[in-house]
Write a structure and sequence with these properties.
The chain is mainly alpha-helical and 432 residues long. 68% of the residues lie in helices and 4% in strands. The chain is flat.
């Protein structure tokens, strides 16, 4: 430093510290040591917030109590969090002064990792992406009034369909969609009742009467399909990224649920057959049963289903690990069960364990402690093996489920946090 006095005063949030130039030169904090290389006041102001040349005082508008703990680290070499201070705020102070998380004590490092993990949960990549897109839209809105009006209208419509808690209209639309899903599921379940297709074996006059009676359910079904189709088309039109819209799992499920109805109607128009005869085909029955996927549409409106889907997406490694555990145990216990129950004594062999694939079913229901009772070991070694299989299944299933449980709780708090933000914005919009 080519100016100022030999004694340098650091004023951090009102607390002053005096050091010599030699101490400043080799100071453990990078921001403080940079002052020694400054040759002008302009360079000094790039390091600190203000500078008093007469008193050679450098002012830093930072947290004074946090700097006290950082100075304790300079003296003793141990860095811990300030009591009653947010871990992220203290970490920001550390970064400002040139420290890293590795300088913290191990217990404080774990606290910081947990806190940063919670912050990543509450502010995920989807939220950051949405904020960036909203900023981009705000910049576009500043361009021209015409573009601003069209963009704002499309954004309001998009939020109405995609975010049920964004407005009163979105809540009404979501309620109507849920009602249509329930009606469609009731019709699907009723169509499998034995009395639903009695018209197939009736006479011509009875067939006409039954057809007239079955007309209202068909109209209701057409109305439900029309609603889901219109909703899917509108959501596609107002979406920001059309390719991203097509790749989303919920949108793919919507398409799979809507398509069978139009396939059935198309075949009716081409072949001239009645819908009752078409549904007799195995392929069309499978397609018709795919409408059960409409229940997954409820995930747009219920926090529990959203939490389940988000947990499964984030815990796929744990799910794969659980599957590997089960497969390895199933291979071992099924081979041993087949040997003990069927392979050793052919005279008193248990035919339920005639093969290893047959024994796999017994291993699955034993490890999951279900026990249907359709097959069970009859020999003493087989029963001992069954007990070991049950205990092993409890232990193997409990190990990865702990991680899945914590992820479920984390995802639930994340979605609950997002929902609370939407409710707050909705309340503010309603009051305004």
């Amino acid at each position: 430093m080519k100016f100022g006095k030999n004694i340098c005063i650091l004023n951090v949030g009102g607390t002053k510290y005096a050091f010599t130039r030699e101490v400043i030169k080799d100071f453990p904090l990078r921001r403080v040591s940079r002052l020694h290389n400054c040759s002008s006041e302009k360079e000094v102001l790039e390091v600190c917030d203000d500078y008093d040349r007469e008193r050679n005082e450098f002012f830093f508008d930072r947290h004074s109590e946090a700097f006290v703990f950082i100075m304790l680290y300079v003296r003793s070499g141990k860095l811990r969090f300030v009591p009653q201070m947010c871990e992220l705020s203290f970490y920001n102070e550390m970064i400002y002064w040139g420290l890293e998380s590795s300088h913290l004590e191990f217990c404080c490092q774990r606290r910081l990792d947990d806190r940063m993990s919670d912050t990543y949960t509450y502010f995920s990549d989807e939220d950051i992406k949405a904020e960036e897109e909203s900023r981009g839209e705000e910049e576009q809105e500043n361009g021209s009034s015409t573009d601003r009006g069209s963009t704002g209208w499309l954004e309001r419509v998009r939020r109405t369909f995609e975010e049920p808690a964004s407005s009163v209209a979105a809540q009404i639309l979501a309620s109507v969609s849920v009602i249509f899903v329930i009606i469609s599921m009731v019709l699907l379940c009723a169509s499998t009742l034995p009395d639903w297709d009695t018209a197939k074996n009736n006479t011509v006059e009875e067939h006409r009467c039954a057809a007239s009676l079955s007309l209202p359910p068909r109209i209701i079904e057409a109305v439900c399909i029309g609603w889901f189709t219109a909703e899917c088309i509108l959501r596609f039109v107002v979406s920001r990224d059309k390719c991203e819209f097509v790749r989303r799992p919920l949108n793919i499920i919507d398409l799979l649920a809507i398509t069978p109805y139009y396939v059935s109607m198309g075949m009716t128009a081409l072949t001239g057959e009645s819908p009752q005869l078409q549904r007799a085909g195995v392929t069309l029955r499978v397609l018709r049963m795919m409408r059960i996927f409409w229940l997954i549409k409820l995930a747009r409106h219920f926090l529990g289903l959203q939490t389940l889907g988000l947990t499964l997406r984030r815990c796929y490694r744990e799910m794969v690990m659980l599957l590997v555990f089960v497969c390895v145990a199933m291979a071992i216990f099924s081979a041993l069960a087949q040997l003990l129950e069927h392979g050793l004594d052919l005279e008193t062999s248990n035919e339920d364990y005639a093969s290893i694939p047959a024994a796999c079913w017994w291993v699955i229901i034993s490890m999951t402690t279900v026990g249907y009772g359709d097959m069970y070991p009859i020999t003493v070694p087989g029963r001992v093996l069954g007990g070991v299989c049950v205990v092993s299944g409890i232990v193997l299933l409990a190990l990865p489920i702990t991680f899945i449980y914590h992820s479920f709780v984390q995802c639930y708090h994340e979605l609950k946090f997002r929902s609370a933000r939407c409710v707050r914005s909705l309340s503010a919009e309603f009051l305004n």
